[in-house]
């Protein structure tokens, strides 16, 4: 019994040391910043997903913006620089961007384990990031964005109708925004009507929920991948389930097949991806990854 207790206490102590030994990183360099918490660092919501991480970042920004141009913070146990000066941020994003384009997410994903998320430009570093960014940038020209307005307007009309039909029923604003975004993004990317306002069990909406899972199991996986990225890769732990991966890959393939078979012409993101495939011969998985990237960027913002 005593041996068991000793082993447990030793394991807990070792874990605590592992999680906190680097917390003196910024103090040693005389860089100001808020005190981190074991396991979570300065931004618990990144792991817990109990509220938008932007709220925590905004709280830190408002507390320190008048005192310092930058801070030292921690993402779980890893040191990060938090910029509070607009001029410094501008310099980093423009003049000195070549030194800052990599991000921490690049080390958390693996293209073999997460073939879709692992191809997201936001998850890539170096030359891979540069190549993927070059592929998607032409899709967001002013003329292309203007051409999508009719799609947004059409979904807005459907949402208005939905609200009027349920005027005597309380509606969750977060879910309402998610339905709107799902329909807009699905139409722009996959040329598909997600039917979020007419079908409460819309398949695309359900897959979107799975992708942005906030269950206890997902939280545990996120913590593990953040703290032990190499071990997570060794154990083949991914962030996106295989069912979600297969769904969006199939959805993209079907959308391309339908458009090419029926000669459909529409200036949208899908048209850009088809053109890109014809020029560079990118794979169906790359196509699906680009589609999911757009889906995540559009979907995650309001929800």
UniProtKB/TrEMBL annotation:
PANTHER family associated with the record: CYTOCHROME P450, CYTOCHROME P450 28A5-RELATED
Membrane topology: Peripheral membrane protein
Gene3D superfamilies: Cytochrome P450 (1.10.630.10)
Signal sequence coordinates: none
Predominant location category: endoplasmic reticulum
Alphabetized InterPro entries for the sequence: Cyt_P450, Cyt_P450_E_grp-II, Cyt_P450_sf, Insect_CytP450_Detox
Keyword Protein transport listed: no
SUPFAM superfamilies the record matches: Cytochrome P450 (SSF48264)
Function: May be involved in the metabolism of insect hormones and in the breakdown of synthetic insecticides.
Entry annotated with the keyword Iron: yes
Entry GO terms, CC: endoplasmic reticulum membrane
Sample GO molecular function, one term: monooxygenase activity
Location relative to the cell: Endoplasmic reticulum membrane; Microsome membrane
Keywords: Endoplasmic reticulum, Heme, Iron, Membrane, Metal-binding, Microsome, Monooxygenase, Oxidoreductase, Transmembrane, Transmembrane helix
Name used for this protein in its record: Probable cytochrome P450 28a5
Transmembrane segments: 215-232
Family: Belongs to the cytochrome P450 family.
Entry cofactors: heme
Lineage, highest ranks first: Eukaryota, Metazoa, Ecdysozoa, Arthropoda, Hexapoda
């Amino acid at each position: 019994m005593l041996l068991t207790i000793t082993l447990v206490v030793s394991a807990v102590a070792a874990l605590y040391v592992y999680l906190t030994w680097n917390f003196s990183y910024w103090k040693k360099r005389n860089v100001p910043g808020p005190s981190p918490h074991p396991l979570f660092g300065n931004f618990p919501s990144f792991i817990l997903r109990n509220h938008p991480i932007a709220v925590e970042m905004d709280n830190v920004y408002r507390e320190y913006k008048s005192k310092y141009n930058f801070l030292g913070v921690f993402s779980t146990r890893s040191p990060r620089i938090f910029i509070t000066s607009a001029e410094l941020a501008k310099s980093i994003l423009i003049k000195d961007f070549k030194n800052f384009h990599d991000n921490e997410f690049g080390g958390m994903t693996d293209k073999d384990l997460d073939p879709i998320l692992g191809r997201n430009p936001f998850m890539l570093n170096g030359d891979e990031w540069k190549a993927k960014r070059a592929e998607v940038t032409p899709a967001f020209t002013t003329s292309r964005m203007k051409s999508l307005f009719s799609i947004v307007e059409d979904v807005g009309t459907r949402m208005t109708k939905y609200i009027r039909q349920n005027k005597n029923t309380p509606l969750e604003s977060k879910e309402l925004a998610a339905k709107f975004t799902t329909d807009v993004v699905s139409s722009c990317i996959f040329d598909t009507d997600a039917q979020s306002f007419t079908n409460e069990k819309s398949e695309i909406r359900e897959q979107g929920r799975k992708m942005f899972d906030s269950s206890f199991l997902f939280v545990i996986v996120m913590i593990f991948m953040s703290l032990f990225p190499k071990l997570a890769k060794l154990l083949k732990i991914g962030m996106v389930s295989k069912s979600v991966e297969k769904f969006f890959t199939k959805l993209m393939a079907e959308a391309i097949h339908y458009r090419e078979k029926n000669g459909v012409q529409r200036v949208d993101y899908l048209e850009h991806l088809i053109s890109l495939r014809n020029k560079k011969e990118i794979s169906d998985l790359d196509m699906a990854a680009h589609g999911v990237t757009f889906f995540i960027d559009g979907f995650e913002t309001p929800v």
